[in-house]
Specification:
Blueprint: H1 2-10, E1 19-22, H2 38-46, H3 50-56, E2 60-62, E3 64-68, E4 79-83, H4 95-101, H5 114-118, E5 138-140, H6 143-158, E6 161-164, E7 167-172, E8 178-183, E9 188-189, E10 194-196, H7 203-208, E11 213-215, E12 224-231, E13 242-247, E14 250-256, E15 260-267, H8 274-285, E16 295-298, E17 302-304, E18 308-309, E19 312-314, E20 320-321, H9 329-342, H10 351-378, H11 386-393, H12 399-410, H13 427-436, H14 448-471, H15 475-488
Parallel strand pairs: 1-6, 3-13, 10-19
Antiparallel strand pairs: 2-5, 3-4, 7-8, 8-9, 11-17, 12-15, 12-16, 13-14, 14-15, 17-20, 18-19
Bound molecules: flavin-adenine dinucleotide.
Amino acid sequence: MAANHLGVELANDPDIEITVIESKDVPVIGVGEGTVPRIKETLDRFGISEVAMLASCDTTFKTGIKFSNWMSRESGDEFYYHPFSTPYPQGFDVTDYWLSQNPEYCFSHISESFALSEQDRCPKRKSSGPYVGAVDYAYHFNAGKFSELIASNAKQRFGVKHKFATVKDVILREDGGIGSLVYSDGESEAYDFYLDCSGFSAVLLGGALKTAFEDKSDRILTDSALVLQEPSTPDSAIRPYTTARAHKAGWIWDIPLTTRRGLGCVYASKYMSDEEALGEFSEYVGRQLQIDEVRKIPMKIGFREKFWQKNCVAFGLAQGFVEPLEATSILVTDFSANLLAKRFPRYYDDIPQLSGYYNKVVRYTWERVIDFVQLHYCISDRRDTQFWIDCTEKTKLSEELSDRLERWSIATPKSLDFFSAFDIFGVENYLYVLYGMKFPTKPIALSDVESTKASEIVEAARKQSESLAGELMPQRAWLTELQQHLKRAGM
Ligand SMILES: Cc1cc2nc3c(=O)[nH]c(=O)nc-3n(C[C@H](O)[C@H](O)[C@H](O)COP(=O)(O)OP(=O)(O)OC[C@H]3O[C@@H](n4cnc5c(N)ncnc54)[C@H](O)[C@@H]3O)c2cc1C
């Protein structure tokens, strides 16, 4: 992904050559199948057609996330959505009306995609153009196939070179930057600028440049995942959303692809043993799983103190990681690789200026990502296990999150509460999660005129959501028709 971003911005510069070095001995992590809508814009920028994306990666459409069990049984609602479509029908903010008139309904009913999600519909019409839907959407995909698709695009479209070698040692320059790489076969190579995409091991930025890792496990308690793939039958319905079902010490993800489901049980090892997690997972999957059927992935929550040091910038897991609840990892890589590509240094002397700004922006982004993921845990009313008691009563909040929650207990969030262009999650995202989880707030009293107008808009939005669901095809049928069409066309 980073090579594609650099390719878009720099491929025409004859002085710049991009090489991806990958180890045959160190496998990729191979998970990461949920995305957010920004990915459409990115793929389009890379020059990848949506049809290629749909045809080659077992891709399905994602209109949001369905959260269940994140609140206590007493709260009434069993689930809520965090959809990608706006909570402002016809552009109006009906939050205060909704909260004062419909306290019993969860807020995501206001979304245009509510009914289509409940009825497993495809967010695109047959006539929809590339990367455009009847409602906004992202994708679920097979991570391995997606990597192959974007890797071949980087090579063919941008002339990126690709070689296999395992970095065993790093020689530093006099100024402390990276001078050259020494490979396991004894060869060595020097480049001017390095992107560390080596996963959790962060071989260059963490290993050679010794950039500290800021641990955030005091804010997000989950640190392990059990991962499983279950085949799906060719005629089964495909849900247009990721399911995130909370359990006693974490949650389970369920990501539908065309051929299988990607499932994972995320848990906090301090509160739940591997065996207990396997039990929770088995209950969800509906059969007794054996420990050797699942893959255990330990997760380090936090990020590097700096993301860009000297002539090295880290991306992906080498940069940082927050558990996968809101599918933020590919998003932050996408965002930060785009930022680097647009501000790529042509001279060494430019690095201090550019890296200072870059580090400030990416740190802000990571901090807000952690805030948003933590929100799902810290405002829950669940107190049934020590995990939930600690998440809600004992974990530390950032100053920003704490300040925002205090403000939103006085008045509903507005866009004016977000002062930075680098708030990756904005007012619309917060509205869905806060009021999906019944966060206590004081809606302002509306005049009769405002109330009548809001009530008409809400009713029109409900009808629109129902009518859209009636009009759109089931997701499975839409994707099957596309595959049949491509087969007939010999593609
Ligand atoms: C449980 C879990 C669930 C996730 N779910 C999501 C999700 O739904 N959505 C999302 O956006 N993200 C998700 N992620 C994150 C996502 O998996 C990663 O962002 C993505 O896979 C990118 O990983 P990476 O390339 O940084 O690291 P890796 O996949 O680990 O790749 C590292 C690469 O570096 C190479 N390498 C390592 N060491 C060396 C060396 N010494 N010499 C040469 N090469 C080397 C390896 O060969 C490999 O190619 C999830 C992560 C986890 C752990």
